[in-house]
Write a structure and sequence with these properties.
The chain has about 375 residues and is mostly helical. The chain contains 17 helices and 3 strands. The longest helix is centred in the middle third of the chain and has 26 residues. It is globular and about 60 Å long.
Length: about 375
């Protein structure tokens, strides 16, 4: 019988080394830069360059990187043709937006000339292509869901718009206000990287077999879909809508929460495996979202007030703090973003981190193959 220590969910287990990100109780650092510093002073394009290319870009490098992203935004015809067929899948519930974006990445892999090559140069080119195309996939998908013509299929958007602004434009057909662009840009920065989280670890396990980047990213998307990971922002907003309806019907937030506690209901958007005393990303996004709500009007502010009361009750009665998914749900909702697209937007950001990890894994690879503690039947004979 094995004497190895078993850690359920690999909690507390150090599974490898990385130079990309450091997650601690009091800080989140991307290649040496703290997240609050990046959120206040960098753009998502700068952060994506930092993660993918490995250092802070100078002006010329940033201009070149932006040009590369713009040049790679448009989707190949087979991907667009697939997206045109998704309406019945979404309506029937047989597919969700995360399934659609995962399939699109797989199709892109079949069309990419570098798809079967894992050299550093090939991986870097693929990273930029996937990153550039993710907002286009999301935007075109939403156009189809809404029954509208696909916006800018030939270019993948407006070349004058940033990654964040172009994402919002492709989804809605309206160029966003500077305030909404800033909120989206910061949210993408906050979601870009988080060391060996479930989806990133999935991508590294796949890359560790020397499989290709598109396959590793598709696997990461599948991992991110789950409500215990990226899907938590969608689940958090659905819960808030439920509370909002209860309050509108004459109930109170406290009564809803008391009932949830009595039923031992899992409340999404709270708690974190590492941040036991609070996720500092949450405060950054909450402040921006609250400001956007105030500029939109009383109904939007009322939603944030309900969310703030939920946070207070969770902290006072359970000692549990919100993670970044809780304010994300409220913020995206105030901005008019459809709830099922919250996690795909997470993909548009986290691709930068995934690709960095895939390249790091390929550059210094060892197959990731843990052992299991067997708890099944003792040895027995087939024919006793």
């Amino acid at each position: 019988m094995s004497t190895a220590v078993t850690a359920k969910g690999l909690e507390g287990v150090v599974a490898g080394e990385t130079s990309i990100c450091r997650v601690e109780q009091t800080s989140l650092i991307y290649r040496g830069y703290e997240i609050a510093d990046l959120a206040a002073n960098a753009t998502f394009e700068q952060v994506a360059f930092l993660l993918i290319e490995g250092h802070k870009p100078d002006d010329a490098e940033l201009a070149r990187f932006r040009d590369e992203l713009v040049a790679n935004r448009a989707l190949p015809t087979p991907v667009i043709e697939f997206l045109k067929t998704i309406g019945p899948m979404i309506q029937s519930g047989s597919a969700a937006p995360m399934d659609i974006i995962r399939t699109c990445v797989s199709i892109l892999g079949n069309l990419d000339p570098d798809s079967q090559h894992n050299s550093p140069d090939a991986n870097l080119r693929k990273s930029k292509r996937i990153l550039a195309k993710a907002p286009t996939i999301i935007g075109h998908m939403q156009n189809v869901i809404d029954g509208r013509d696909i916006i800018a299929p030939g270019t993948g958007g407006d070349a004058n718009l940033s990654h964040a602004a172009n994402l919002l434009y492709l989804m809605t057909g309206t160029r966003p206000s500077p305030e909404y662009e800033k909120v989206m840009d910061v949210s993408l920065i906050l979601y870009a990287e988080h060391d060996f989280n479930a989806s990133t670890f999935t991508s590294r396990v796949i890359a560790g077999t020397l499989s290709d980047m598109h396959g590793a990213v598709a696997g990461a998307i599948a991992a991110l879909k789950g409500p215990l990971h990226g899907g938590a922002n969608e689940a958090a907003m659905e819960m808030l809508k439920e509370i909002q309806a209860s309050v509108a019907a004459g109930g109170t937030v406290q009564a809803f929460m008391d009932n949830a506690f009595a039923q031992k209901r899992k409340l999404m958007g709270f708690g974190h495996r590492v941040y036991k005393q609070g996720d500092h990303r949450a405060g950054i996004l909450h402040a921006l979202g609250r400001k956007a709500a105030e500029s939109k009007g009383p109904d939007a502010v009322a939603l944030f007030e309900i969310g703030e009361e939920v946070q207070r009750i969770m902290q006072d009665q359970k000692g549990i703090f919100p993670n970044v998914d809780f304010p994300c749900g409220m913020t995206y909702f105030v901005m008019g973003i459809p709830v099922p697209q919250y996690t795909p937007i997470f993909v548009a950001s986290r691709i930068s981190g995934w690709c960095a990890h895939i390249m790091e894994q390929h550059a210094n690879n060892r197959l990731i193959r843990p052992r299991a503690s067997y708890i099944g039947q003792d040895l027995r004979q087939w024919n006793p």
